[in-house]
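Title: [Solved] DNA polymerase IV 3D structure

Original question kept below for reference.
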Amino acid sequence: METTRQKYGRVILHVDCNSFFASCEIARDPSLKEKAVVVAGDPKERKGVVLAANYIAKQRFGIYTTMPLWEAKKRCPHLVILKPDFHLYRDTSEKVFQFLKTFTPVLEPASIDEGYLDITDGYSSRSSPLDIAEQIQKGLLKTLHIPVSIGIAPNKFLAKMASDMKKPLGITVLRKRDVPKILWPLPVQQMHGVGDKTAKKLNGIGIFTIGELAKAETAILQNLLGITGVRLKERANGIDPRPVDPEAGEKWKSIGNSTTLSRNVTEERVLLEVLRDLAQSVSKRMKQKHVVSSTIQIMIRYSNFQTITRSKTWENPVQEAEEIFQRAVYLLKRHWNGNPVRLLGITAIDVFDKREAVKQLDLFHFEEDAKKEALQNTIEHLQQKFGDSIIQKGYEFFRR
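Solution (posted by the thread starter after getting help):
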């Protein structure tokens, strides 16, 4: 007998919570439902920034994430401003995913507020994918008071694109045959997986729409973006074979790297060089997975094979190599006993999606991070073009 999968192919849902942080606050205090609500770093500070806004704030007053709080207040004098409560958001997220698991065990959380469900074997003529999507949307609204938008498609990429098409409380079906008509006219920067840097690179070779990306020469894209270019072209054509993987989140709970030294080392200067290289490696992998971590761990193995691991959790999560390095140095100086070292390692513990890392930034920190990111982008571009050694720390240059 022919299975549903054989007959119709895969059916994937992407469930995306609408204005999640603000929705959690409104669910806790229903009196806020008809008001413009934002979550901000410090409501008492003029220099704070908006971390999240509900749809009334967005659509009626044009308030958006990262907008300076003073400007948001100017646009909406009666704006409700709340400090972030990450314990509430994580607790609500767990309840959302527990609810989704009642529909299928094939569930992959993508971040704190979104996930993919493979319902290929979970529906029938009596319960269509659209029926299931409606049950999920109505059920989450009724039980947790969390509004969601849902995309229904034959793969993860199209499901994600579909869920973005109607917010809040939208349900959108996107079939592969719809791609030329619906997706191809869109600007390439609206494509999931294309960030600002990638969009600029694509624009630089004359690719401005998803359709132009879909029709571009594979060799040119591979030369420009590596394997990422090939994957983006496939997705622009509606192709995405990635399975919904329930274990995907668990695979990246920690990201680390270690190295055995060529000799027993007692010089701190050499150990710091090794830590810097390890931090670069860990940072690169974290960026590939779009994750950050607040907890850094180092491993020290001495020449007698005694091994210790020490970690510390900081307030703000990190991803950049320099910040990981500085935290590893702190741990090394605090815990190394001076004996000869044979192996060093750095691990980022309990990594999580970068979008969860909405630091309680004020405007000063926001601007500072933006400047750092611009500098880091320049450095990475130079290293990709000329090699990692093109940029060196001053003391390294003079030491050579």
